[in-house]
Amino acid sequence: MNKMGTVVGFTFMNxxxxxxxxxxxxxxxxxxxxxxxxxxxxDKFTGGDDQPxxxxxxxxxxxxxxxxxxxxxxxxxxxxxTLVPYEQADKAVLQAAIDAGDIDGYLQFAEADSGVFPxxxxxxxxxxLGMGLQTxxxxxxxxxxxxxxxxxxxxxxxxxxLSAPVQIDAVKASVESSGSEAGNKTAETxxxxxxxxxxxxxxxxxxxxxxxxxxxAEVTAEKxxxxxxxxxxxxxxxxxMFGKILGMFLxxxxxxxxxxxxxxxxxxLPYNQPVLADFNLQLSDIRVEVLVLGLVFYVLGYFLYxxxxxxxxxxxxxxxxxxxxxxxxxxxxxAAFYIGIFSLSAPNSVLMKVSSYIPFVSPVSMIVxxxxxEPPVWEIAASLVVLTIAIFLxxxxxxxxxxxxxxxxxxxxxxxxxxxxxxxxKI
Amino acid sequence: MANPLVLDKVMKQFGEKTAVNNISFQVEEGEIYGLxxxxxxxxxxxxxxxxxxxxxxxxxxxxNGNPYGRxxxxxxxxxxxxxxxxxKVKISDQIIYxxxxxxxxxxxxxxxxxxxxxxFEVPEYYDKKIEELSKGNQQKMGFIAAVVHKPxxxxxxxxxxxxxxxxxxxxxxxxxxxxxxxxSILFSTHRMEHVEELCRNITILxxxxxxxxxxxxxxxxxxxxxxxxxxxxxxxTGLEQIAGVEKVERKERGYLVRISQVAAAQExxxxxxxxxxxxxxxxxxxxxxxxxxxxxxxxxx
Lengths: 427, 301
Known about the structure:
By secondary structure, chain A is mainly alpha-helical. Chain A is built from 17 helices and four strands.
């Protein structure tokens, strides 16, 4: 075990000191920082929202509609825009007004047969309407349209009710708890747990891809540089393999800790706080069991994949062949990733239930289910047991492959050759 | 006391092929034992079995009278044929790491590494990376990696291949030094001249079988002296007519005469002295190379 510590230390120190590690960590930290600031910047640039944009409204052609729109806009408390009426559709005048900054753009109704609502054009310097403006205008125009088509047959309230979107509340039928309680709970789960699940899945995938590749590449490099022969005469292959996996895991943890630190610093920056609050994310909403179970599945899943990566690395003699050799595991982890991501909206589906018991997919599935769904305790326990057994099984198998693989040079051995070699080496 | 290394009828099969067939030999303390053979003769397989990397299918390997165990890892050093170290890791880091894996403390390992770097007169390599060194110097570092933890048994696979003559001498001197300190060395090569200089006992392998084994001097005695080297100022003709002469080869400075009986040598000398002035006359003892070729029956290198 002492030797394993030495291997862990050596693996860790060597990776940390490499330039590539420093650079990737820095670049990723920078990206995270930029990503965290995006909401703030968006807020900053769309800050014009405070002073509503001025929109020219051309009366010519469809004066009724224009009037109706103006009337509707006046009734809104905060429409997000103000209308500047223009009698004539004089392009030159409107253009001049835009250039002078009097208006941001102008709305114009096209000619249309009676009883048909005309198309509306918005002309401005920009290619498109802003998101906020678009929704506001659309709602207003919807209202105008309803009024226009019904020709005063409906009251204002009826029109408002007509144009309001239909709300669908998804409530899960459950035996133990009454409907209202279940509904409360879903709301309680909160956006923050969703975010945590999302982050955990992405972290899981990234760590596996990055450290997994590093593990396989290191093993292959050791093999191709023949230092492996010295190593396996000094340390047992098992200690060596798990030492490497642990060392890499620590690297991954260090990286995650750095990112977590960066995120924490960014969140605590005072000007970022109101923006976060806008997203309705409250740190106090975090459910502890989501975090703990999520981390447990994360760690277990990592070890399962890492042992396989090490085994594959030991089978390949040259680094050039490595990419092809680890393809199957890459596909597997991709599958797990996508099953998780696509099931975020349906955490209690049959697919998720089944994949909770399939070792390579279960870490992601369970993270999703624990975070967003409501799996019974026994299912969590069963999934954990299956995963742990799988780790031991694949760890044992990988150690065997590793022990044999590191002595086989030349072309990548087939399963048959590998079995034969295992027999010959009496492993 | 039992010898540091004893192989007793060791056998290894890879599938249908017998890689090593009933090999037995012993290495004493402070001895360099030569394991010779052409490529594919089973040298590396034998060494891997000694190292505990693979297990023999038959026979046994004993270390100081005991079978292989984990604790031996600290007492053994290995210089693989294609020696390798981490190309991008500082020499001090990786050699201390390897020494620690073999049970040495870091401070001891550091001291030992510095000693060896000084011994090879390259203390400045301490902070260098392997990829920055020439191939010969990389090999020296590989050698240091094999002996840095002061092993009692060192296994060297083709220790001198690819080195220039100066470095070969340097390495030979250190190997002898190790031997004099009581280290047992199992040494494989297909360069016969190194064996003649270093080893007391040898085993020649051919396709997994032992073809010749024993004390080097005694082996040589068994082989008749069959060659006469003659350097003269003038030309000597008619050597072929002497009884017992098989073949005369003209060389740059004289003749190489192959004889079937030792008595013929005297005749050759007499004849040469009659006709010309003799500069050099030698009845050559067979080189290991010749013995090897004779035994193995095919050209080697």
